[in-house]
Design goal:
Layout: E1 20-26, H1 32-46, E2 57-62, E3 69-70, E4 76-77, E5 91-95, H2 99-102, H3 107-118, E6 123-126, H4 129-135, E7 143-145, H5 151-157, E8 162-164, E9 170-172, E10 175-178, H6 183-195, H7 197-206, H8 211-216, H9 233-244, H10 252-259, H11 263-274, H12 278-296, H13 301-307, H14 313-324, H15 328-342
Parallel strand pairs: 1-2, 1-5, 5-6, 6-10, 7-8
Antiparallel strand pairs: 3-4, 9-10
Helix pairs in contact: 1-6, 1-7, 6-7, 12-15, 13-14
Domain HTH araC/xylS-type: 236-334
Keywords: Transcription, Transcription regulation
Pfam family, one: HTH_18
């Protein structure tokens, strides 16, 4: 039953800035099931009830030649926007399907994928699109999630990549690989990260999903900040240390002394893995923690600042605005406005 009877679908969508924007690139003969599993939970999170307006989440459909593209089951999809991988997307999704279409993609598309990865835009590869990322060299020395039916060919063609067949998705080095039949887990983790717990619960409810069982499924990857993992052990150890000291960040030289490395070595490792220096990455972690506290607690901005290692509220506001384009107070108000829109009378 619809829990939002007073919402008029004819009314224009509220003028809220979306929490996430996703660009889908559909390859010819793409697997419709993969795409549907990823977009349907996001569609539920994007609006109140079943109205399907793109308020809190937005997405567009693209093809490489701006022409309609046909899925492997014969459904034809017309692009909603011209092919543009650099339109300020939070994620770009490449949807593959039949291997004949993704074994030998155009060199121009591979170059576009490399540029996209260099710009630190997360790339999601669905189904056989992981072959494209591997051919572009984006998975060298990394792990990826592959369907068991394609593992042998993938190993033979890309020996420098480690294919994994028992996980629902793998995020490694800015590439999030997801085989056929498992994209819903990825969608829910994206919603949890960008949209918050309230809308994640809404999606679970409407899709009739049992959250504890999903958490316990063998292939599910534990949640992690920004859906990212890093191969560099030094970066992993340092980030673990940073997360334990969000409220009291120490001078970096104390950290480097405990790790028995130089600051230059640490920054080189971080720049290679994250694109940021260690200090910038630590600040981003603290800002993300502040963002969670602004929506998950009633702490004052000054208290949030102290809990996240900022000297005072003014310091936090300055960096928060630079990182997210709005003040902490504006962010809290916007998220609570969203909560009032989507919270049903009875949970």
């Amino acid at each position: 039953m619809d829990n939002y009877p007073n919402i008029d679908p004819a009314l224009p969508a509220p003028p809220l800035r979306p929490d996430i924007r996703i660009g889908f690139v559909l390859m010819n003969n793409f697997t419709l099931h993969c795409v549907a599993e990823l977009i349907e939970p996001i569609r539920f999170a994007a609006d109140v009830s079943f109205l399907s307006r793109q308020i809190f989440c937005q997405w567009e459909w693209m093809s490489c030649d701006n022409q309609p593209v046909t899925s492997s089951c014969g459904m034809c999809i017309t692009p909603t926007t011209r092919f543009d991988l650099y339109a300020n997307w939070d994620y770009v999704v490449f949807a593959g399907g039949l291997l004949d279409e993704t074994r030998h993609p155009a060199d121009s598309l591979l170059r576009e994928m490399v540029t996209l990865q260099q710009q630190r835009t997360p790339i999601i590869t669905l189904c056989s699109a992981t072959f494209m990322a591997a051919k572009a060299g984006l998975l060298n020395g990394k792990k990826c999630a592959i369907h068991f039916t394609t593992r042998d060919e993938f190993r033979q063609r890309f020996p420098q990549v480690t294919p994994v067949i028992d996980q629902t998705y793998i995020s490694d080095g800015g590439i999030i690989s997801c085989p056929v039949g498992t994209a819903r887990d990825l969608a829910l983790d994206i919603i949890q990260q960008h949209c918050g717990e309230l809308r994640t619960r809404k999606v679970h409810k409407y899709l009739l999903m049992d959250e504890p069982k999903r958490r316990a499924s063998p292939g599910t990857i534990a949640r992690q900040p920004a859906l990212k993992t890093y191969d560099d052990q030094l970066v992993q150890r340092t980030i673990a240390y940073m997360l334990q000291h969000l409220a009291e960040p120490e001078p970096l030289h104390i950290m480097t002394e405990s790790l028995q490395i130089t600051l230059r070595q640490l920054n080189q490792a971080f720049l290679l893995s994250t694109g940021d220096t260690a200090a910038v990455h630590w600040r981003k972690l603290r800002l993300e923690h502040a963002r969670k506290l602004m929506t998950g607690s009633n702490l004052s901005i000054n208290s949030v600042a102290k809990s996240c290692g900022f000297s005072d509220a003014s310091h936090l506001i300055t960096w928060f605005r630079k990182q997210y384009g709005e003040t902490p107070a504006d962010y809290r108000k916007r998220r609570r406005d969203v909560g009032r829109l989507i919270t049903p009378e009875k949970i």
